[in-house]
Amino acid sequence: MQHNILFVSRRNSIRSILAEQLINQIGQEEFKGFSAGISPLGQPHPLSLDILDRNGLETEGLRSKGIEDFTHAESPKMDFIFSLSESEHETRNLSPNWPGHPLTTHWSIADPTVITGNEVNKVINFRYVFKELRTRIEIFVSLPIATLDKLKLKNELINIERTCQNEVFFNSTLAMNNRSQAG
Fold first, then answer.
1. Which of 32, 121, 132, 183 has the fewest CB atoms below 10 angstroms from its CB?
2. pLDDT confidence of residue 175
3. What is the domain extent for residue 178?
4. pTM higher than 0.70 for the full model?
5. Upper half-sphere CA count for residue 168 (Cβ side, 13 Å)
6. Residue closest to 138 by CA, chosen among 111, 112, 118, 167
7. How many domains are there within the chain?
8. CATH number for position 19
């Protein structure tokens, strides 16, 4: 059985686009990824397309979509909806009355565009976000979904958030310390 997953972010130009393509590659036949934004920009961020391309992921035909694209009767029925933003507050009210009552969760993922700096720093920020999403999605697709009830599955998704937040914070702090010591 294939599970449909919708990744939602604010603008659907970075985080949700990256997650959509990652789940389609990593999850292959078991998962089908989609992405949407609360206020979509209309096109993916150029650095999103670059990092997808550099990692051998499909970029052809990607576009920024709104959540309303997934609320029509003819829209694919979602099994999971992941909100991807810095804070759950940003996407708390994103859920219309989704058909089928999909399992929803929040993964706190930083927006790589809010950090100022030169082009190298911007690319580094995009790579951190890509790596963080890849780690979470790899853990997610390894879960024995068919054997878990909804409550246990929801707890596993929360555990992924907690585990990865700690790991990414440690790794990004370490990298920032190494850069400042090298400079």
1. 183
2. 43
3. 3-182
4. yes
5. 21
6. 167
7. 1
8. 3.40.50.2300
